[in-house]
Amino acid sequence: MSYVMVDVESDGPIPGDYSMICFGAVLVETGLARTFYGQLKPISEKWIPDALAVSGFSREETQQFDKPVQTMQAFAEWLKAESDGKPMFISDNNGFDWQFINWYFHHFLGGNPFGFSSTNLGSLYKGMVQDTFKNFKHLRKTRHTHRPVDDAKGNAEALLTMKTEMGLKIRL
C-alpha cells in the first residue's frame, strides 16, 4: 500500500454543483519526487468567485483546462504506475478533498482507485499528541501556497516527520 497525499482546489463547496479546478498528489516517500498535477475544465455553470480566487485562476483560464475525464484517467493511470498496491488517500482536509476526488472518479470513470476510505492528516496528528487543540501545520517545510502540489508536499513532509521524528508506526 502506498500513501498518496492529495490537495484539491475548487470553485465551490461541493462536487457536482461546482467544479474541481485543479489538484495535486504526491507519493509519500523520502524525497517526495513522484507527483501528479491535474487541471480540470469546469463541469457546471455555477461558481463562486471567492472560491475560485483561492486557486489563482480566472474563470476564463479554467475553461481552457482539460476535460475532467481525461485528467481523472491520467490520475488513475499514475496511481496504478506509482503505487505499491492499493493507494491510500490522505489529506489535511479529507472531508473536502476526498469528496471531490471520489465524486470525480465515480462520475467520470465509474470507480475510485482509492476505494471507499481516506485518512485525515490533522486527526492523525491530534491522536498522536493526544490533544484535539494541536495542529500539525508547523511540521510542513514547503510553504502552503494553494498550489496543490506544493500543499500536498508540505503535508507529506509533515507525515514523514510524524514517522521519523515522532515515532508514528506507518509503512511508507
TrEMBL record:
GO terms for molecular function: exonuclease activity; nucleic acid binding. It comes from the Bacteria. Transmembrane segments: none annotated. Keywords: Exonuclease, Hydrolase, Nuclease. InterPro entries: RNaseH-like_sf, RNaseH_sf. This is Exonuclease.
